[in-house]
Specification:
Length: 253
């Protein structure tokens, strides 16, 4: 009851503030829908798309070991981003097709257990703890599959729009993504990956194996993602829209 009262109080305060607000910027269609009840004069959506251009097709899939399938995880492995489920899935993948390697840029954060020595020793897991965003973007095209897994544990995660999703697409990688609204919409609308329940290690395992064993499917999904970045997910277009929404307010001031 105390929590509900606090939520109602916060909601009431947000309504009061919204009546004196000219513009609210949302980062996705789904977040815009959540806050439709706010009495704001104007709303706009500003997507957090990658600013770098789509990667040259000539460097995509140029893995150092063509006999292995490389999975990309940009950012630290965390419990809230299905870190435990992903490691369980990788153990199961190794039992069935030991040619997969998970590359992690960003190390481990908040994981309840130590790093799995078995996966590291057999080459199934490669971790870089400290790495720049530029280095990650440079290495993504040498991978085969991108992972964008988030657990629906609260509103922040349910309505997540990870930047890495679009960076994978720009690099021509098919994406294995969580079944949360924005990630699901992007993957399904543009046929650029596979949607899974990130709470289920078996579902992650099956998706990895499916893509690892089907190079043509990876190529098709990856090409769809690259095309979508060039046509739909354009940071310069979104920046222009945002500026167009703000300028009239500045001129009025």
């Amino acid at each position: 009851a105390i929590q509900r009262s606090a939520q109602n109080a916060i909601r009431g305060l947000m309504k009061i503030l919204a009546r004196h607000t000219d513009l609210i910027v949302h980062v996705s269609r789904e977040r815009d829908g959540v806050y439709q009840w706010l009495p704001v004069k104007q709303k706009t959506i500003y997507m957090l798309y990658p600013e770098h251009p789509t990667v040259d097709a000539g460097v995509i899939g140029a893995a150092s070991d063509p006999d292995r399938v490389f999975l990309a995880h940009a950012g630290a492995v965390r419990p809230s981003y299905a870190g435990i489920e992903l490691l369980q899935a990788m153990t199961r993948v190794q039992d069935r097709i030991p040619k997969c390697t998970l590359r992690v840029w960003g190390g481990f954060a908040g994981m309840p257990t130590s790093r799995p020595k078995g996966l590291i020793e057999c080459g199934a897991l490669v971790i870089k703890d400290s790495v720049s965003r530029e280095e990650v973007l440079a290495e993504l095209p040498s991978c085969d599959i991108g992972l964008s897994l988030v657990l629906p544990i609260d509103k922040t995660h349910v309505y997540a729009q990870p930047r890495k999703l679009y960076e994978y697409m720009a690099a021509g990688l098919p994406v294995i993504g969580s079944d949360v609204p924005t990630i699901r919409r992007v993957i399904e609308e543009h046929q650029c990956g596979v949607v899974v329940d990130a709470r289920d290690p078996d579902a992650i395992t099956d998706a990895i194996i499916r893509l690892a064993q089907d190079p043509q499917l990876r190529k098709t999904l990856g090409a769809n993602g690259r095309r979508a970045i060039g046509v739909h997910f354009n940071s310069s277009v979104e920046s222009t829209r945002l500026i167009a929404a703000i300028l009239p307010l500045l001129n009025r001031a």
